[in-house]
Amino acid sequence: MDAQAATALPQGIEFERGETAEEMYVNMGPQHPSTHGVLRLLLKLDGELIKDCIPYIGYLHRCHEKIGENRNYIQIIPYTDRLDYLASMYNNWSYVKAVEALMGVKPPERAEYMRVILGELQRIASHLIWMGTFGLDIGNFTIFMYCFREREMILDLFESVSGQRLNYAFFRIGGMPMDFPETFYNDADGFLEWFKGRLPEYDRVMTDNIIFQRRVQGVGILSEEDAVGYACSGPVLRGSGIRWDLRKNDPYGIYDRFEFDVPAGDRGDVWDRYMVRRLEMEESARIVEQALAQIPPGEIMAKVPKTIKPPAGQVYSRVESPRGELGHFIISDGTPNPYRYRVRSPAYVNLSALPAMLKGCLVADAVAVLGSIDIVLGEIDR
Amino acid sequence: MTAAQVLFYLLAAFTVALALMVVLAQNIVRAAVALIFSFCGLAGLYLLLDAEFLAAVQVLIYVGGITILLLFAILLTSRIAGKGVRVLNEQKLLSGLVAVVLVVLLGAAVRRGFPALAARPPQPENTPAIGELLMTTYALPFEAVSILLLVGMVGAIYLARKEPR
Amino acid sequence: MVPLSHYLLLGALLFGIGLFGALTRRHAISILMALELMFNAVNLSFIALSRYLPGSHMQGHVFAVFVIAVAAAEAAIGLAIVLGLYRNFKTVNVDEINLMKW
Amino acid sequence: MRRGATRHSLLVAGKSGRTVDELIQLLAGMGLPGLLAQAAGMLAVCAIIIGYIAVASMFMIWWERKISAHIQVRLGPMRVGGWHGWAQSIADGVKLLLKEDIVPTAADKLVFALAPIVVFATALATYVIIPFGPGLWTKNLNIGVLYYISISSLTVVGIIMAGWSSNNKYSVLGAMRSAAQAISYEVPLVVSVLGVIMVVGSLNMEAIVEYQSSRMWGFFPGHWLVWGQLVGFLVYFTAALAECNRLPFDIPEAESELVAGFHVEYSGIRFAMFFLAEYANMFVVSAIAVTMFLGGWKGPVLTLGFLSPGLAAKLWGLFWFLTKAYFLIFVMMWLRWTLARLRVDQLMHLGWKVLLPIAFLNLGFTGLFLILKDVWWGS
């Protein structure tokens, strides 16, 4: 047993020694279909019961922050895309907002509307991917294709706007580089119409299915105190019953002009986190509709110097990404490169609550709980 | 030799060889697998004895039930078993002697008691006959066995249950 | 035709092998397996006798059914005991389990 | 020794093992000695069944891919072979045959090699009793249903052998799950089938089919046992899904939890054997359900002018049997692509606390009904 434990554990990590001898150490990942990338979970199992769990990360580390310090402010934008590659718009947004705050630039109103529209569409796309892969995690393969069908439409919209389908690098410091093409409004309306018709379809396959409900209800419970204690954010925090959404609680841009609800759960189980995301898709569609109706004509780019040299100082800017509070912290020393560039990644923080959620679950639950956190390894490892 | 004879000696050799493997194999899972196949060989022998009902029950209960339970317990208690572990205790010689003497005695008894009885009397169809016997002549033992099974089940659950903390 | 005595000899041989295993194996589950082997040897004899003896009226089959039922109960309880032993002693080798009370 | 006695003692033949015996007699008529003719006849039947399994499984794999694709709003294989990718399975099969045979260093080589053979052989052995049509069976065993039940319980042995010998933690977990699942679902399966056996009063597959042959008002299959034994049928079908390790009960191989469960380490031809066995088992389970609940090969028989009536009846029997069986297979595929996977404890809960009591209730009510029928209408 000891020899086995020694080979399973990385150096310096130790589990509490249990008293029963039926324990088994299992490496879940880094090559495993349900870790959504290269995450490694060390599970201490008693039969199928999870006694303990240690997430072990770093397989995708690529010195994102250090690279940031060696690039000028504009060059960083495409790098941020690669953080949370399923919601690139938000990475752009959070970073650009930080630099704008540092420089004291205010983007024009139309650019703000464009950001909201693209951002909320991105949220829908990200939640769709999450829903599809969550379906795979618990063995429902069909929802995956349904979700990807709609996500494909959103990507088509993004392609018509930015020319890119995944890593857009579309936000600029001070505004947006290009206006929407003429066809965009019609296409976006058409998509929203179609999408609302599809939501009941998802419900039939997932939400209303009794097996699905049994699989997720009461599993992986994260109490309110724990959620706050682990500094969780986004759907994980809201699933635990705390209505905390930066769009409401710390409104940035023009979010105070839209009407939308912040869904929240009450038990903090996988089901609540699922329902929060499921309802958020509807709310995002509502916001996009309002924004499309309100969007004013006008400039899309503020006056910004060619070389960006923010005055010395520091700033922390955050947005509500699909995964939670995505923040960029920048220290400027007045040169064209940031002195320090740091990312507060929501998935990383949320992942730290995984062991708390997993205690006493079964192996099958581990997959569901991990899926319910909605991790993106590109963001966790940076 | 008729087909029945050929089959009998083949199956007998197969069963005995696997039974030897059960008691001598280094690795306990291999022993269990050998046990499964020797049960299958015995089921074949039952078929040769026109006991098709018992052959099916043999496969169903012994192979599908008991040995699966055994394998389950092996997987629970021993990890991939190490090689070179001593599998027999110190009583090898003594118990070997006991077993050999027993077989010789039994063989002698068989030779003396059942001299070359080879003709088979006609036999009723298996399944209904057994069912009828169980429900009429042997109803009491049948009920006793069901109670035994119930007691066994309760006992097994009690023993295997984890102590409440 | 295969004479009855061959079946009975085969049964005796299997019983002997099972006995040897039950007496010598160290692993508790191995002992259970050897016991099952002995049960089966007996069953074979029962069925063979029932088939060959005139006027046997399937009684051998009925007894074999009972033996199988008892063997199933024995296996379940035996395995539960093995699991209990393993939990308490961290071993299933019966010659290492030499305490009456822990 | 009498010929009839040999057959009886060796193969436990029922009243009429028609088609196979005809074949053996044909071979014997060609001058082969009796034993050899019998062996040749058996080999021929074996070859036919293996051929059927191979072709049917390939078809089912292609079919499942198409069904899943259309459920999931995509097209599935479209390229290989031209028309809707019909040759995709053949191409896959060839690929699997040509792949390198990898045996992990730490595996128990003998058991590792035996496991897929055991699984496939059990799947093959169950085909013995399937009555494809009037006279179209390998052996019409007196203990047909019991034979199926006992042989099908062997599959799990192969699975445990595979899981343990791979020397991989995921496969051991898969094997343990599989053992637990097989034991738990064997019981409701058997009990649900008992209802049918009580009504018919025989374990013989032909007798069960014949019992269901008459129809109401000339066309309605009112004597199909599925009407009286609807509960039994549903319990049987659910337990059978679990026996085949199909979603929602595919926890022994759950790809998102245990990667692939017991066959993680298998590749090439050995993996192909597991795969074939899975589809072969699906067919067997459906075939048994059709025989016991859906009237077997019975259906409207139209005369075909150019065939003798006996042959026409056989062909129509085959047609109806396969139609019903493949309908059930379609339902299994449909379920797989729309439902989520159960968790281990939920699986046990369903097996022991839901299916088993229902099956016992069904059994009790069936017995009560039979007794009341005897009392009121007399025997």
Instruction: Look at the structure and give the CATH class of the largest domain in chain A.
Output: Mainly Alpha
- How many strands, what sense, and barrel or not for the largest sheet of chain B? none
Mean pLDDT of chain A: 84
Major sheet: arrangement of strands of chain A: 1-2-3
The CA-CA distance between the termini of chain B, in Å, is 66 Å
Strand content of chain B is under 5%
Main beta sheet strand tally, sense and closure of chain A: 3 strands, antiparallel
Shape descriptor of chain B: globular
- Helical stretch tally of chain B: 6
Q: Which structural category fits the helices and strands of chain A?
A: alpha+beta
Separation, N- and C-terminal Cα atoms of chain A: 35 Å
CATH class of the largest domain in chain B: Mainly Alpha
Helix content of chain A: 40-55%
What tags apply to this protein structure?
heterotetramer; B: 165 residues; mainly alpha; D: mainly alpha
What does this structure look like?
The complex is a heterotetramer of chains A (382), B (165), C (102) and D (379). Chain A has 382 residues and is α+β, with helices and mostly antiparallel strands. Chain A folds into 2 domains: 2-56, no CATH class; 64-381, Cytochrome-c3 Hydrogenase, chain B, CATH 1.10.645.10. In chain A, 49% of the residues lie in helices and 12% in strands. The radius of gyration of chain A is 21 Å and the shape is globular. Chain B has 165 residues and is mostly helical. Chain B folds into 2 domains: 1-81, Four Helix Bundle (Hemerythrin (Met), subunit A), CATH 1.20.120; 124-165. The longest helix of chain B is centred in the middle third of the chain and has 26 residues, at 52-77. Chain C is elongated, with a radius of gyration of 17 Å. The model of chain C has no long low-confidence stretch (mean pLDDT 83). Classes of the chains: A alpha+beta (382), B mainly alpha (165), C mainly alpha (102), D mainly alpha (379). Chains in contact: A-C, A-D, B-C, B-D. Chains B and C meet through helix 1, helix 2, helix 3, helix 4 and helix 5 of B and helix 1, helix 2 and helix 3 of C.
